[in-house]
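question for whoever is on the cluster today: can someone run the full assembly for these? four chains, 410 residues total. i dont have access anymore since they changed the login thing
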Amino acid sequence: MPESERRTEIMEAVERLLARGGVGAVTMRAVATEAGVSLRLVQYYGRTKDDLLSSTLDRLADRSIARWRARTAHQESGRSALDEVRAFLDEALPTDEESTGFHRVGVSLEALAITHPDTAGRAYRRHLDALADHLADTLRSGTSLDAAPLDATPLDAASARLLALEVMGLAHGLGTLLMAGRLDRQEAGAVTSDYLQRLRPRLSP
Amino acid sequence: MPESERRTEIMEAVERLLARGGVGAVTMRAVATEAGVSLRLVQYYGRTKDDLLSSTLDRLADRSIARWRARTAHQESGRSALDEVRAFLDEALPTDEESTGFHRVGVSLEALAITHPDTAGRAYRRHLDALADHLADTLRSGTSLDAAPLDATPLDAASARLLALEVMGLAHGLGTLLMAGRLDRQEAGAVTSDYLQRLRPRLSP
DNA sequence: CAAATTTTGATACATCCGTATCAGGAAAGG
DNA sequence: CCTTTCCTGATACGGATGTATCAAAATTTG
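^ ran it for u. tokens below:
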């Protein structure tokens, strides 16, 4: 197996461990077992544990952005900015097993970003930056494609950025409440529905 | 020094370590050093590390609730629900050193809640529950005390609960963005200001 | 086939961790 | 004073972890 594939496999093992048991579950030996390779090989790639971890997180940030970008790319145009916000919230909230695991990884990353601002923090910031930029772009192109309603102001760049950050914040926070079991899927739907209703006069007629 | 005070001091040391370096920084020996006592004494109270940690987290949840409750109790009545939301957001966002540390502890708690759902998860849920209940109550009494505006519907219990959860979610998410440095104080103010403006027709004239 | 690359095995070492165990010292309250 | 409560010291054990090292095998590649 070529070197790059092995690297990927090992990083995927790290991600799985992160999703399952948080940072504490990531040890060199656990990674080896999870990836089905020898400890020696885990040392072979990613010389040190910090290297391995920060490489994995960088890759994670890249993939997360690419995933979201791909998800919105094949959509037909003509969706309003409100539709985009709804889609983002639907997509970002941890409702199934996969997105739950992804959110768990996100929490681990967030915690790591605090204790290791230079490595994990960088990856985290890159991730948030790209996500906010892309969401803001989506929001702007959404409104411009709209059949311009009389009372809907097209979003300027600054407003789009602020709204994107607000939506990201709400998604993250609601996700946390969902994960904690403080909110069930239905209530989350009701919250976002209320939120979107209030947002409507701003983004579409 | 009486037993209960010592317990408190040790738990405070645990909190400081959590705020500074996350879960990984909490070791029995580190707690001893931080509290200025011997390792032997840390073992004396809170027999095991899990006990010590979950006691600390329980105490933290209690204090967080009490703190917020006290903060809103001495306020004069007559504040609208919108004022309450504004106050909550102002209070909850990590803008100074103290609230930043508090948020750091919250992230640690969140991460712990995932890996230890029975101990840390319980404390986290208790914390979120009490906060949501109190905020919902505040929102309802806020509107009822308002000079009833024509178009402002008084909040029923279910709506207040949903709005409380939404506001908590937003606060948590924005807090994370602030901590990550993806948002500065000024932008956070702009976001909450926009958000409140959209909320206005719902809560006050 | 030969050579380069990729993978493993079997250990080893220093370090930190949680926990435990002895005995003994300090302080406080009756 | 003296007994009870509170606290420390020194030390140890078993386990897990990150990292390192040596040689050797398997696999791919030219």
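summary bc i know u wont read the tokens: The domain at 53-203 of chain A is CATH 1.10.357 (Tetracycline Repressor; domain 2). Chain A touches chain B through 46 residues (CB under 8 Å).
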